[in-house]
Write a structure and sequence with these properties.
With about 170 residues, this protein is mainly β. It has helices at about 20-30, 140-145; strands at about 15-20, 35-40, 40-45, 50-60, 65-70, 75-80, 85-90, 90-95, 100-105, 115-120, 125, 130-140, 160-165. The strands form two sheets. Strands 1-4-5-8-9-10-12-13 form an eight-stranded antiparallel barrel. It has a three-stranded antiparallel sheet with strand order 2-6-7, with no helix packed on it.
């Protein structure tokens, strides 16, 4: 009789997956004119999170530093246009022990960026040729607080994110 083997660990979706903040998304869903869209490399998962496609990286696993780039355009709106949040082409920049999540402002060909949050990270796991960061804590930054019209104070916890990118040789 052949022993039962454990099923391999399920890999998360490729890219950066983030739900922003569940209470915020629930609020949007409850608005009569609440709208959410994802395009240009971003998708909405079955659980309501956003997944941004990988768009290149300069990450050094040995040092734990570098930049991971993602592409996609997520828009959240409501209150007859009075509320509008856009997350465009996020990047994660790692320095020793932490990271910064930024988005494109859409200016300067997408190179001009604004910080959305700070990340407390550990080293990624290498899983089947991919680097995987699971349950990465996100705290909104000062600029991120402004993006959400001050509804979340700088330092406040947002939903955790997950990253899966190809490991570089």
């Amino acid at each position: 009789m052949k022993p039962a083997s454990a099923s391999p660990a399920q890999l998360p979706r490729q890219g950066l997956t983030w739900g922003i903040k569940r209470s915020f998304m629930d609020y949007i869903a409850g608005l009569p004119d609440g709208a959410v869209s994802a395009a240009d490399g971003a998708t909405v998962t079955a659980s309501g999170e956003f997944c941004f496609s990988p768009a290149g990286s300069e990450y050094d696993p040995a040092r734990g530093t570098g930049v991971l780039r993602f592409r996609g355009d997520v828009r959240v709106a409501g209150h007859h246009g009075m509320m509008f949040v856009r997350l465009l082409d996020p990047w994660v920049e790692f320095t020793a022990g932490h990271g910064v999540l930024s988005i494109s402002t859409g200016d300067d060909g997408g190179k001009e960026r604004t910080d959305v949050g700070t990340l407390r990270t550990a080293a990624p796991r290498n899983m089947d040729g991919f680097l995987v960061w699971e349950h990465v804590d996100v705290a909104v930054s000062e600029a991120g607080s402004e993006l959400f019209d001050g509804q979340y104070a700088a330092g406040q916890a947002m939903d955790p994110l997950v990253i899966r990118v190809p490991a570089q040789a």
